[in-house]
Amino acid sequence: MFNTFKENKYHNFVKDYIDNKTQYRYIEELGLGSYGVAYLIQHLSSGENYVLKRMKAKHRKNQKLRDKFNLEIQLLQEVDLPNTPTVIEQGKIEEVPFYIMDFIDGQTFEQAIFRDGKTYSVEQSLQITSQLLEYVVILHKKGIVHRDLRIPNILVKEKDLYIIDFGLACYMKEDVDFDKIDNPKRAENHISDLYFIGHFLLFLLYSNYSPTQKKERSWQEELRLPYSLVDYIERLLLLREPFSSADESLKMLQSQLLKHPIVLTD
Ligand SMILES: Nc1ncnc2c1ncn2[C@@H]1O[C@H](COP(=O)(O)OP(=O)(O)OP(=O)(O)O)[C@@H](O)[C@H]1O
């Protein structure tokens, strides 16, 4: 098996492969996750940028992880939305599977908030969440749950949102007993995506927050949001009765929270 040292060696292998055996040239590494590595590459004749994502070399003999990686590609192909990257091609480099997809030349919300110090008002946070929910409703209609809608996996480019990293996505299970969900993050239905969207919304709202006290308090106390919005977020986070679908939560957001101007409580 490739160990950490060999992973570096494999990295050089991939670079050589891209530069000498494909119609692309290697530009840089974009990110290294627990299972995969993503690289920025450029198509030689068009000059367009793409992303090559591969499995980590040390996992290449692990059939379960290979299946997981193949499922990621399959789901991304099935999603086929303007706001998710299109899969261009797939293959193997020395037994390690990879695929090439569109490069979304935007910023992740993690970069926007934590690197660039971007702040979002309550109104903006709700507008962005509404846009995200619209895409998630379509995703769910296609029978797919993303299950990792965190700030590094949602990009913004010219005010449009894009969803990447389908590494934990799965086919949606229709009949699930809500009382038996002990880990909402891993639920194989809308509950998981709504739970992550609740946290996503809190990240946006916190971007505008400056602590007034040393002692850390709950988000309900710190953010001083209107009751209707607290209630809404609590439903996303399963602290209250969950929404029966992403569509229901989108409708409530659009018909009740976005319709009236948000007034913060003192
Ligand atoms: N299609 C894309 N367009 C733009 N940037 C991308 C794209 N795909 C990945 N990236 C960048 O590369 C980083 C890593 O990619 P990705 O999130 O898919 O893999 P990972 O999370 O590192 O792997 P794993 O699935 O093992 O956790 C992302 O955070 C993002 O910055």
TrEMBL record:
This is Serine/threonine-protein kinase. The keyword Amino-acid biosynthesis does not apply. GO terms for molecular function: ATP binding; protein kinase activity. Residues 24-266 form the Protein kinase domain. The keyword ATP-binding applies. Gene3D superfamilies: Transferase(Phosphotransferase) domain 1. Transmembrane segments: none annotated. ATP binds at residue 53. Keywords: ATP-binding, Kinase, Nucleotide-binding, Transferase. InterPro entries: Kinase-like_dom_sf, Prot_kinase_dom, Protein_kinase_ATP_BS. PANTHER family: SERINE/THREONINE-PROTEIN KINASE.
